[in-house]
Write a structure and sequence with these properties.
9-stranded parallel beta sheet
Length: 282
């Protein structure tokens, strides 16, 4: 019997190899592995395996109570990226995030760099509830309250923030864009299908966020006036998306071409028929 146990142990994979294998598993499968034995449970809960967590595929099963269990049991200072999906327009009552839960996340994952949440009602939470270590913030197709970004006015607030994605957030308007401009180190801003914003806020954005390298304005009701300010101030811009912006004209786009020497990609889908040679378009 002793010989058999010794032979069996010789074929056991070492911890580092098992951890590497576990790193390719989705969260659901990783938790299943934790039920196999005590050793696998210990390895499945190793911090390196919980650096990047994507819970969006399990949104139908998640509610506030389940999120509390996950945050308290698995989230540690090693967490760097978190992706969630809410219940907006699903007919379900309650959301997966709340102010107490986000504050708990903030205390446990103070070094979180990437936070993405989609299709969620965020009217009951504040931007200040999130960790200020964030580099990327994505709230695509979410419902956010007016002036949600007002806390960016505070000195030192979210000083590491480099990218904001508010695509399809229908309530975003000019005051929100102006508030975002307090994060002066932003390099990426995505405002696609935020149809309430106007030329005036794009002018303000262009004057304040001169470090921008990517700007997405697909489906926004902007005109050549916005393109003029973009071309005049955003000299480092490499990617500009004005698809579905049906009020821009050939003249405005010609001006962008002349003023933005570093522009590499210009997205023009469903715009007025235009012709800009020697520039990649998608």
């Amino acid at each position: 019997m002793a010989t058999a146990n010794t032979a069996e142990s010789d074929f056991l994979l070492p911890d580092n190899i098992l951890t590497e294998i576990f790193s390719y598993l989705q969260i659901r499968d990783l938790l299943r592995m934790a039920r196999v034995c005590k050793r696998w449970k210990r390895l499945a809960y190793e911090r390196p395996l919980w650096k990047r967590v994507d819970l969006a595929p399990y949104s139908r099963r998640l509610d506030g109570r389940a999120m509390w269990r996950i945050v308290r049991q698995f989230f540690t200072p090693s967490l760097k990226s978190l992706t969630l999906a809410g219940h907006l327009h699903s007919g379900r009552t309650g959301e997966i995030v709340s102010t107490p839960l986000l504050l708990e996340l903030k205390s446990r994952a103070a070094s979180l760099r990437h936070f993405c949440i989609t299709t969620a009602d965020l009217t009951g939470v504040n931007l200040s509830d999130l960790p200020e270590s964030l580099v990327t913030l994505e709230t695509r197709n979410c419902e956010i309250p007016p002036r949600w970004f007002k806390s960016l006015e505070l000195d030192g607030a979210f000083r590491n923030l480099r990218a904001v994605d508010l695509s399809c957030c229908s309530r975003v308007s000019d005051p929100d864009v102006i508030d975002i401009c307090h994060a002066s180190s932003l390099k990426v801003v995505k405002l696609s299908w935020c149809y309430r914003i106007s030329n005036s806020s794009i002018q303000h954005l262009s004057e304040k966020l001169t470090q921008l390298e990517r700007l997405d304005l697909e489906g926004c009701k902007i005109t050549d006036v916005s393109l003029h300010h973009i071309g005049r101030h955003l000299k480092r811009l490499k990617f500009l998306n004005v698809s579905q912006c049906r009020q821009v004209t050939q003249a405005g786009l010609d001006g962008v071409k002349m003023m933005l020497k570093h522009l590499e990609h210009l997205c023009l889908d469903s715009c007025t028929p235009i012709n800009i040679p020697n520039l990649p378009t998608f």
